[in-house]
């Protein structure tokens, strides 16, 4: 499951039914070359410079998985919606990638460990995000990193995880506060295919 980044993203959405039109949003399908290029540039900055094993949690139709694969990473994607997984498999057919139906809280990857866990607009939807982050941390190899794109949506009844709260949740997991980088993304209209006025950011935590 992946949120739609709207006023109340994710609320009551049938993600299997939504899979057919999911990629029509500029930041979902990454069909516009400018939007795609903006995400590719960000991933090059956030991900390791050498190929590694990447777990894309809440991968949706696999658009970010595809960009990561194009940059040489071996991708495993997990999503709760089988229809999303079907589309991701088709999108990355022939690449070094595997896609699994499963819950983001406990991705069904067994004892496999990863160099990166990537998640976009997923953590805020999960109960007890602090516990989830601890579990995700355990899926990383030594020297691995979490790359978390999150935000806060809405003004009357805002939903999401603020950058400040995210930092508070991550710091206890780190040996050094310098291993956490939080980048504001609200002003990067090209990432979203439009101007946005809500809080959006990426947190990159290295372990």
Structure description:
It is a single chain. This protein is α/β, with parallel strands linked by helices and 207 residues long. A hairpin with a 5-residue loop joins strand 5 (140-153) and strand 6. The relative contact order is 0.16. The longest helix is centred in the N-terminal third of the chain and has 14 residues, at 33-46. It has helices at 15-18, 26-29, 33-46, 63-70, 82-91, 129-137, 163-170, 189-192, and strands at residues 53-57, 74-79, 97-101, 114-120, 140-153, 159-160, 180-184, 199-206.
In short:
The protein has 207 residues and is α/β, with parallel strands linked by helices. Helices cover 29% and strands 25% of the residues.
Topology (SSEs and partners):
Blueprint lengths: L14 H4 L7 H4 L3 H14 L6 E5 L5 H8 L3 E6 L2 H10 L5 E5 L12 E7 L8 H9 L2 E14 L5 E2 L2 H8 L9 E5 L4 H4 L6 E8 L1
Parallel strand pairs: 1-2, 1-4, 2-3, 4-5
Antiparallel strand pairs: 5-6, 5-8, 7-8
Instruction: Specify Rg, calculated over alpha carbons.
Output: 16 Å
Indicate the mean pLDDT. Answer: 90
Structural class: alpha/beta
Summarize the biggest pleated sheet. Answer: 8 strands, mixed
Helix content: 25-40%
- Which residue ranges are poorly predicted, with pLDDT under 50 across at least 5 consecutive positions? 1-11
- The run of helices and strands is HHHEHEHEEHEEHEHE
Q: Whole-Å distance between the termini?
A: 26 Å
**How many extended strands?**
8
Estimated share of beta-strand residues: 25-35%
Shape: globular
Number of helices: 8
């Amino acid at each position: 499951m992946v949120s739609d980044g709207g006023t109340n993203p994710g609320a009551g959405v049938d993600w299997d039914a939504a899979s057919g039109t999911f990629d029509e949003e500029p930041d979902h399908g990454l069909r516009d070359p400018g939007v795609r290029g903006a995400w590719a540039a960000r991933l090059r900055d956030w991900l390791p410079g050498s190929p590694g094993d990447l777990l894309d949690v809440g991968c949706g139709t696999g658009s970010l998985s595809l960009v990561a694969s194009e940059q040489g990473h071996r991708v495993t994607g997990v999503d709760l919606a089988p229809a999303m997984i079907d589309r991701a498999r088709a999108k990355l057919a022939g690449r070094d990638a595997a896609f699994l139906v499963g819950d983001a809280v406990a991705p069904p990857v067994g004892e496999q460990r990863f160099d990166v866990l990537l998640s976009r607009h997923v953590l805020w939807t999960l109960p007890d995000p602090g516990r989830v982050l601890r579990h995700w941390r355990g899926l990383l190899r030594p020297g691995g990193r979490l790359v978390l794109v999150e935000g806060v949506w809405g003004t009357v009844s805002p939903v999401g995880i603020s950058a400040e709260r995210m930092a508070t949740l991550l710091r206890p997991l780190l040996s050094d506060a310098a291993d956490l980088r939080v980048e504001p993304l609200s002003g990067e209209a090209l990432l979203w295919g439009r101007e946005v006025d809500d809080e959006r950011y990426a947190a990159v935590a290295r372990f």
